[in-house]
């Protein structure tokens, strides 16, 4: 992945985690999300392994900070090449359902986030693919993650053009509202997920 790099010592840390837990099929850790200029945007620290959250709500794993055993990959099958935007998410769900995942207590990678990434440019096609994956793995018509990814899609849809406009009356207010709406949707989805 040309938009990511491993931090020094990351591979050694992951190998140590696999050695400590022979049963684990996957090890993941945190990632620094940065912009194109290398400025820190988010210090992403994923939760402890929670299959229900991964399957029903959202992909909390940073791809470059996620490693898995070859034996686990062979057991669940390779990536689904019919997917374009979330083949890693689908694979992470299958790996987590197959064998316990383990969180490394370290930052393992740096991930660059910018408007031209496949995540940001996927639009409605990405949302539909994520919805299909969530439905497939939960056997539910409306898993909570559909609302989460729907809110994320709307946020990207409005936020991107808004940033490019020089002078828009109320631009900061609209941006603040969008962020607030995404936070509300995220909170609602987490609450809904805990109730199922």
Brief sketch in words of this structure:
The protein has eight helices and five strands, in the order E-H-E-E-H-E-H-H-E-H-H-H-H. It is of the alpha+beta class and 196 residues long.
* SSE topology string: EHEEHEHHEHHHH
Distance between the termini: 36 Å
Round the mean pLDDT to the nearest integer and report it: 85
Overall 3D form: globular
Main sheet record: 5 strands, mixed
Roughly what fraction of the amino acids lie in strands?
15-25%
Class by alpha and beta content: alpha+beta
Q: How many β-strand stretches?
A: 5
Poorly predicted parts: 189-196
Radius of gyration of CA atoms, rounded to a whole number: 18 Å
Helicity level? 40-55%
* Count of alpha and pi helical runs: 8
Top keywords for this entry?
196 residues; alpha+beta; 5-stranded mixed beta sheet; 8 helices; globular
Write the layout of secondary structure elements.
Blueprint: E1 4-6, H1 10-20, E2 26-34, E3 40-44, H2 51-56, E4 66-68, H3 70-76, H4 87-98, E5 101-112, H5 118-121, H6 123-138, H7 144-164, H8 171-195
Parallel strand pairs: 2-5
Antiparallel strand pairs: 1-5, 2-3, 2-4
Helix pairs in contact: 3-4, 6-7, 7-8
Describe the fold and architecture.
The chain is an alpha+beta fold and 196 residues long. The protein has helices spanning 10-20, 51-56, 70-76, 87-98, 118-121, 123-138, 144-164, 171-195, and strands at residues 4-6, 26-34, 40-44, 66-68, 101-112. Strands 1, 2, 3, 4 and 5 form a 5-stranded mixed sheet that branches. A hairpin with a 5-residue loop joins strand 2 (26-34) and strand 3. The radius of gyration is 18 Å and the shape is globular. It starts with a strand and ends with a helix.
């Amino acid at each position: 992945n040309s938009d990511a790099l491993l931090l020094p010592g990351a591979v050694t840390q992951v190998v140590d985690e696999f050695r400590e837990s022979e049963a684990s099929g996957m090890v993941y850790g945190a990632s620094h999300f940065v912009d194109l200029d290398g400025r820190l945007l988010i210090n992403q620290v994923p939760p402890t392994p929670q299959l229900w959250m991964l399957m029903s709500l959202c992909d909390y794993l940073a791809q470059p900070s996620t490693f898995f055993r070859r034996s686990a990959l062979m057991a669940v099958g390779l990536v689904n090449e019919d997917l374009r935007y979330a083949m890693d998410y689908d694979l992470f769900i299958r790996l987590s359902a197959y064998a316990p995942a383990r969180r490394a207590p370290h930052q393992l990678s740096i991930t660059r986030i910018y408007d031209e990434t496949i995540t940001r440019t996927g639009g409605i096609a990405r949302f539909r693919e994520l919805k299909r994956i969530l439905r497939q793995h939960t056997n539910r018509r409306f898993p909570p993650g559909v609302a989460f990814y729907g809110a994320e899609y709307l946020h990207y849809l409005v936020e991107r053009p808004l940033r490019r406009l020089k002078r828009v009356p109320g631009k900061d207010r609209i941006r603040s509202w969008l962020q607030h709406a995404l936070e509300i949707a995220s909170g609602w989805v987490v609450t809904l997920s805990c109730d199922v």
